[in-house]
Amino acid sequence: MRLWTVLRDSARLMVGVPRYDVYVAHMAERHPGEVVMSYPEFFRNRQDARYGGGASKGISRCC
Amino acid sequence: MTTTLKDHGPFALLGLIGAGALGVIATANGEQVSALWMVLAAVSVHLIAYRYYSRFLAGRVFGLDGGRQTPAHLKNDGLDYVPTNRYVLFGHHFAAIAGAGPLVGPVLAAQMGYLPGMLWILAGVVLAGAVQDFIILFISMRRDGRSLGELIRMEMGNAAGTVALFGAFMIMVIILAVLALIVVRALAESPWGLFTVAATVPLALFMGVYGRYLRPGKIAEVSIIGLIGLVLAIVYGQAIAESAVWGPMFTLTPIQLCWVLIGYGAVASVMPVWLLLAPRDYLSTFLKIGAVLALAIGLIILAPPLKMPALTKFADGSGPVWSGTLFPFLFITIACGAVSGFHALISSGTTPKLIDTETDARFIGYGAMLMESFVAIMALAGASILDPGIYFTMNAPAAVVGTTAESAAAAVTAMGFPIDAATITRTAGEMGEKTIISRTGGAPTLAVAMAEIFSGLFGGLAMKAFWYHFAILFEALFILTAVDAGTRAGRFMLQDLLSLAVPSFKDSTALWPGFVATGLCVSAWGFFLYQGVTDPLGGINTLWPLFGISNQMLAAVALMLGVAVLFKMKKQRFAWVAIVPAAWLVLCTVTAGGLKLFSADPKVGFLSHATKFGDALARGEVLAPAKSLSDMERIVFNDHVDAALCVLFLSVVLAMIFFTVRTCMAALRDGKVTTAETLAVPA
Q: Which residue has the higher pLDDT, B586 or A2?
């Protein structure tokens, strides 16, 4: 993987957003015919998952 | 033979370099050595430990199996469970574990000189901290990425799980209080600092709306907008601070600031996450990574000399920054950076669900913690490149150094670190602050060090004040993110615990249980924050040891889970890898907890302090630094609360030892492997 891609993906994952293209590919391969979230929907879904849950789900960063 | 040389040769060379660097540092004998030697020694130790010890752990002890499917493949959903490139995941994991802890602890520990702190950071991370992160990641990865509480429940029983969850909640409360206290100490009476931090709230709200509705999901765009906003806030902060109208509005006393923070915590933690928390998290995450990189580059290019002695006379426990002897208190003062129990929550959070192949766990679990330890080494170097006179002026409580440059210069010079009043005033002026005296908590000290380093790289003297406020902003920003996120996390933990008694608390979406739990959580950390802010000895003296004890205790609990799992895997012959660090942490925390309770020295022991003030109160006397009889009553009450907390922490750790021994005995009696691992599925 190219350095730039690694840095970009890592920066996104640091704030809780994994790769959208991987999600779309996953849905196409494993769940054909099911509704695939658009990028804004996907982004909101990930945002709520990162910050909305409990200690184990959300961020619990301190030190 | 040639492969052996190829394989081990570079590491033998590294060993020589590291030993040489350590030798230079240890034998400096009063002469100043370059901070570069410290960095070099640390990097050598880290690389050698990674190559040999983590390989031993991964192979012989855990038996990581690249041919076994990870949760990311087994439960792949493209969202929570996604096989992820190891370098990408390393960045994610490092960003999640690195926070304020590794920056503050080493700065406070520098009062004993840089050598004890440095040796503990290096030995601690190799044998305890990185082992803990790695073993929990391994255990969680083999159990569908479950959380620490669930893992303890699965492997050691329900009672152990509940005790651990309760312990984790109390740790959260103390961490939030101590972090908020650091912000109070950094921003009180500093209009420039307070304005820039306050400006991040409307900035984050705008970023939140932008990222949610205007340009959904454009993380890079919104982060760049935020960064520009931050720079503008710092630049205009100076004018605001000097303005006759705005300056006084942003000049708050510590007590006012304490209430502002409590209010902020309560409101921010019930707001929608996308509005304030998420954009603030972007800023603090990216700023943190950037600042850490810049600090590393600055230290390497400038190679500033270490002005702090390798060992100061305060190793005997008489230091002004915090009280207590080297053993056990150094080992709880530097928590994160050497070993941090909090990481067990991260290693059993999102990371295990994203690992592509099992063997990646070594690089991510052990490797990322080494990186955090490197951050701690840089913080220690930062505190040590400052003139020790400045260091003690900033970190000694006002009760010791007074509030004027003259009194501080006299007091610090009397400690054996000569400094004159003009230097103190000039340094404050260079930083754009009215005073730097008794700015305890570590963050302002590190900010001065970062200002020295960054201005050496870019901008010179003219930019020093800018860089100081940049560093304060960067620290305050991620502490506030932690306060916000921590209050939320604490609320869910509390709801979990309360639901054991009142089942209706289980529903995390219902309105009133959420409000009740949030209120309780904020009141809990707010209580300790208020106590710290009004403590005449600065509060850090009381709260930081409690934080250290609780954080190391959680690490011991996590390592005990590791011991139990190794016994259940029938790998008890390797269980020493977790038993040794767990035993050391138990020894340190129990000794420190015991001293905090029963030490006859009122500066160390809560109970003897309570007795001293209680007796005076009974005689109707007011002891300095209290100003009234009601102050005296409050001091006695606070001492009793702190003592009760120590008892609580000690009980948790003793209970967990009991559960661990019980689990290990049962595992030994059973002839077969008894772990609750998810069934292996070949890749």
A: B586
Q: What percent of chain B has pLDDT over 90?
A: 76
Residue A54: the pLDDT is 46
DSSP run (H or E) holding A43 = helix A39-52
Place of tokens 């020493």: B576
B305, β-bridge pairs: B34
**With the C-alpha atoms ordered B558, B563, B568, B569, is the resulting torsion angle positive or negative?**
positive
Q: What is the DSSP letter of B441?
A: S
| For range B654-673, the mean pLDDT | 95
Q: Do A61 and B217 touch (CB under 8 A)?
A: no
- Residue B481: Cβ within 10 Å count: 30
Burial state string for B117-149 with b = 16 or more CB within 10 A and e = fewer than 16? bbbbbbbbbbbbbbbbbbbbbbbbbbbbbbbbb
Q: Which residue of A has its CA nearest to B348?
A: A56
Mean pLDDT, chain B, as a whole number? 93
> Residue B559: what residue type?
L
Residue of A nearest to B103 (CA): A63
The residue type of B640 is: H
| Residue B71, min C-alpha distance to chain A (Å) | 15
Query: How distant is the Cα of A48 from the closest Cα of chain B, in angstroms?
Result: 7
pLDDT of residue B295: 93
- CA nearest to B498, candidates B176, B175, B169: B169
Other Cβ atoms closer than 10 A to B625? 13
Rounded Cα gap, residues B44 and B11, in angstroms: 8
Q: What is the pTM of this model?
A: 0.95
CB B41 within 8 A of CB B21: yes
Q: State pLDDT tens for residues B381-394.
A: 999 999 999 999 99
